[in-house]
Amino acid sequence: MKYHVKNLKLAAGGKKRILWADHDMPVLQQIRARFSQQKPLKNYRLSACLHITAETANLARALKAGGADLVLCASNPLSTQDDVAASLVSDFQIPVFAVRGEDRVTYYKHIKAAVDHKPQVTMDDGADLVNELHTRRRKEAANIIGSMEETTTGVIRLRAMARDGKLLFPVIAVNDAATKNLFDNRYGTGQSTIDGIIRATDILLAGKHIVVAGYGWCGKGCAMRARGMGAKVIVTEINHIKALEAAMDGFQVMTMAEAAPLGDLFVTLTGNKHVIRAEHFRRMKDGAVVCNSGHFDVEIDIKILKKLARKVRLQVRRFVDEYTLPGNRRIFLLAEGRLVNLAAAEGHPASVMDMSFSTQALASEFVIKKRGKLEVDVHNVPLAIEEIVSRLKLKSMNLKIDKLTPEQVLYLASSGEGT
Questions:
Q1: Can you give the pTM of this predicted structure?
Q2: Residue 53's pLDDT is what?
Q3: In whole numbers, what is the pLDDT of the chain averaged over residues?
Q4: Measured at the alpha carbon of residue 355, what is the angle toward residues 353 and 359, in degrees to the nearest 5?
Q5: How far apart are CA 404 and CA 215, in angstroms?
Q6: pLDDT at 419 over 70
Q7: In whole angstroms, what is the distance from residue 238 CA to residue 255 CA?
C-alpha cells in the first residue's frame, strides 16, 4: 500500500481520536452498518480530497465498508491531524497522502497521488482535486462518473465551470444540502472558528469589537457565537439582502473601510478574494487580530500585509504571526491566513459532521446508482437523501415530530376550502 503520512507510530493516538468521534456520529454508524452488508460501492475506485480529521476518518470507514477502493489526500496543508492519518493507514488500511504543514509542492504531489488512483468517483472540499482533473489530468477525467463537493468555495468554483461549459462530469453540491449548510456551516463553523481563535490567542471576546466579513451560513454562525460570548459584532457584506438580514438580527452593518479602525478582531468567511486589503490594514488599530475561516488563504491579502510591514515576527505565539506597520502598529495574523478552525483547533464537532458526512456517503451511493444518467452539471442533493439523514438524526437525539392527519393531507392537496 502506497501512502505518505508523518509517522505511523502516531497511529495509536489517532485511533483513539477516531473512535471517540465515532461515538458522536450515530447516523454515519447506521449507514456504515448498511454499507457493510450491501456493498453499494463495491468495485469502484474513489479518491477523496478532504480535511484529514477524526470525523473524516469515520466517513472513510463507511466508504470502505461499502466496498470502495479508497484513497485520501488533504484538502488543506494545515488541517491534517497526523495521528488520524497514521491510524487510517495502520489500523484501517486506507491509503492516505497528507502531512500537516506540507508545502505547496508536496500538497500537489498528494493530489497527484489521488488522481493516480484512477478514481471513478471523487470527493472534494474546495475543488482542488476536480480542478486537477480539469487542467493537468484531463485524460483521467474521462473515468469519472460523478463527484461530490463539500464546501461553499468549491461549489462556487464548480458552478462557474458549469456556467462556462467547462465542467467535464456531474457534481453533487453536498455543501448546498440543508442537512449540511444549515448545521455544519452555521453551528459547526460558528463554534470551531471561535474555538480556533481562542486557542491561538487566549483572547477574551466579551466587550471586543469583532468584525465578521460575510453573512452566509458560516458568517451567521460565527457572528451568533461571538455575540453569545459578549462581543460587539460588526458585519460587512456585499449582498443587500444578507446585509439587511444581519441588521435585523441585531448586528451593526458597515463597510470594511468603516469597520477597519473599530475592530479588535477580524474574521473572513466569504469564499472570496482579498476581502481585507491594504486600505484596511492601514486603518487598523495597534494589536488588531486578523484571521480567516473561509476555505482558501486568499481572503486576507497576506502579500500586501508583508509589503506594508516594516518588521515581521513569526510564531510570537503558536499560530500567531506579528506584522509591525509604520507607526509601530502591530497586526496579528492567525494560522497563516488559512482555516483558523482547523489549523488552530480541531474543526467542527463530530455531532454536526455526522450529518454532513452521512449526506456525503449517501450521495456517493446515489452517483453510482445513477451512473451514466446524470447530466454534466452541478446537481443538488436529492430530497430523499436529506430526509433520510434528518430523520435518523432526530431519532438519534430522541426527538419526535408530528405527522399529518388524513384531513391535513387532503387540505394541503386541495384548493376548495377558503374563508
A1: 0.94
A2: 98
A3: 97
A4: 115
A5: 35
A6: no
A7: 9
